[in-house]
Design a protein that fits this description.
Layout (H helix, E strand, L loop, with lengths): L1 E5 L2 E4 L4 E8 L7 E7 L6 E7 L4 E3 L7 E6 L4 E6 L8 E8 L14 E2 L3 E6 L1
Parallel strand pairs: 2-11
Antiparallel strand pairs: 1-3, 3-8, 4-5, 4-9, 5-6, 7-8, 9-10, 9-11
Length: 123
């Protein structure tokens, strides 16, 4: 499985970005895909997750602002980020789990990781 993120960049507070993650070789029908982020000096946190059947889960800090989605035909995961805040600045990682009962945002549940894409939000 190979995960390649794109779409990061610099934006002013209140702006939007859409991250993409191209997932090649991922064929787990009962798995989860997720987005994590890590800011300098902080632990990596789960931002959003989507199970193969479409159920989603979001961290409290991004609920109502971020939307996770996937295009099965393109094997691509997305994260639409609106109303961005300076505290959203971080490296964002795409991750894939072979199996999950529900959309999870625990790092330990994930088997595969991308290299990350930087998001910087200025005030």
């Amino acid at each position: 499985v190979q995960l390649v993120e794109s779409g990061g960049g610099s934006v002013q507070a209140g702006g939007s970005l859409r991250l993409s993650c191209a997932a090649s070789g991922y064929t787990y029908s009962s798995g989860c895909l997720g987005w994590f982020r890590q800011a300098p000096g902080k632990e990596r946190e789960g931002v959003a997750s989507i199970r193969t059947a479409g159920r989603t889960s979001y961290g409290d800090s991004v609920k109502g602002r971020f939307t996770i989605s996937k295009d099965n035909a393109k094997n691509t995961l997305y994260l639409q980020m609106n109303s961005l805040k300076p505290e959203d600045t971080a490296m964002y990682y795409c991750a894939a789990a072979r199996f999950c009962w529900a959309p999870v945002r625990r790092e330990a549940e994930y088997n595969y990781w991308g290299q990350g894409t930087q998001v910087t939000v200025s005030s």
